[in-house]
Amino acid sequence: MNTVRRPSLVRRAVVLLLLTASLVFGAALPSWASYVDSAAVQTTVSTATLDVPGIPTARATCSGGSATITVNWNASTAPRVSGYRVRLWLGNAWQDVGTVTGLTWTGSTSTAYLTNYVMTFTVWTQTPYGWTAESAHTAQVFCS
Asked: Residues of 71-103 as b/e, b for ≥16 C-beta within 10 angstroms?
């Protein structure tokens, strides 16, 4: 007959007790482990386009050495238009010539600019939220 020594019996009982306790209570999670509930969310951002004011027309009426230039355009169909900025292309450089809230800009210059440089205009739609849109260039302006 085999006899079991008492220390082995105690050791087996302690191991069995620890295994049973760990099965019942579960093992502790490491400190870096956590459970986070999350769900995928899809968002859509839609943006409206800012319409240009159409192709502007420019006409110069000349008398003596001075010219009066009138630029006309159609209104932009974009919402919340705050005004229009008229820009002059003179030779090889841009120049802002004015900001208006209407659909016409008129300015005066020397006829020398019309005969010695390529002069065209563009009109920019402006909004209070900072968006702008540029029209196409006018035809070259000549004295009429």
From this structure: bbbeebebeebeebbbbbbbeeeeeebeeeeeb
